[in-house]
Specification:
The protein is of the alpha+beta class and 289 residues long. It is 44% helix and 14% strand.
Length: 289
């Protein structure tokens, strides 16, 4: 327990809050900057004397229950809550909860992206939603059911999944997929789906077994990758990601560099939309309406 740092952290967080932030009435003669100690103590369900001793570096180590109550009272973010627990000397609670409900914040960003492919993924690589240009580039990835909803599962069981990447990239992608799946395996212990995917892949894919035995762990997206469109061929994209606070969902945005052939191909896809390409007699790409 770091008493000095804990006292400073509690005091400064208390001073940043106003009574209205926590549902209290701000009286006309208020002189305290932020909340009073007794107000924080009341919100946390503890005595004012106990809380005061914490701010004065005189208090005993709070329990995990008291730490959680302080985090709620001070309206801490998840990062701040985890910091509070570590200052007190406890392991931070699990912050992860896998959900089908798409983060409203990510959806607001996705709704504004109409000129670049973007999609929201779960930590198990389930595609939860795609914008039209992502569908044109990658196909409808939300159509899958069961374990096949996970791109990690499809990578090792469905050859069509690998068609999105150049063949020479497949070994590296296999390691990336397995490392990310291992991260997901320990993220939400209450959800058995990741374990089922791992068990099934052990039965179905010798390649997965070989890669899994490397015990690599990573939650990452390459900054730059090459995708393969069935008619337009290779398209080089730069990847930007935006995570929810608990890392359960990711908004993946793919852009192309100005003036490149890949940019022209992506612009063509944005015009064509869902229409299908067909080869014309001259070998030029055509459009099937």
């Amino acid at each position: 327990m770091d008493k000095e740092e804990l006292a400073d952290f509690l005091r400064r967080r208390r001073e940043t809050l106003q009574p209205g932030d926590v549902g209290l009435v701000d009286g006309p003669r208020r002189r305290t900057r932020g909340l009073r100690r007794e107000e924080v103590a009341g919100l946390a369900g503890m005595s004012t004397d106990y809380y005061t001793r914490l701010e004065q570096q005189r208090g005993p180590q709070p329990s995990e229950q008291i730490a959680a109550a302080l985090a709620r009272a001070l309206r801490l973010t998840l990062d701040e809550r985890d910091h509070l627990f570590r200052l007190i000397g406890h392991n931070a609670p699990a912050r992860f909860h896998r959900s089908e409900h798409i983060s409203p914040a990510l959806m607001r960003v996705l709704d504004r992206l109409d000129d670049t492919p973007a999609l929201v993924l779960s930590d198990l690589a389930d595609t939860l939603v795609q914008n039209p240009l992502a569908i044109a580039l990658l196909g409808d990835q939300t159509r899958h059911t069961g374990l096949a909803r996970s791109a990690y599962y499809r990578w090792f069981t469905d050859p069509a999944e690998r068609s999105h990447y150049p063949e020479e990239d497949h070994p590296r992608q296999s390691r990336i997929q397995a490392a990310a799946l291992r991260t997901a395996l320990t993220s939400d212990r209450g959800d058995p789906r990741a374990a089922r995917i791992v068990a099934e892949l052990h039965e179905l894919s010798p390649e997965f077994v070989r890669v899994w035995e490397r015990h690599e762990v990573a939650k990452r997206f390459e900054d730059r990758k090459t995708l393969v469109h069935p008619e337009l061929g290779r398209i080089d994209v730069d990847c930007q990601v935006l995570f929810t606070e608990n890392l359960a969902q990711t908004l993946l945005v793919m852009t192309t560099r100005p003036g490149t052939e890949s940019q022209g191909k992506l612009q063509l896809l944005s015009v064509i939309g869902h229409q299908q390409f067909t080869g014309s007699r001259t070998g030029e790409p055509g459009i099937e309406r």
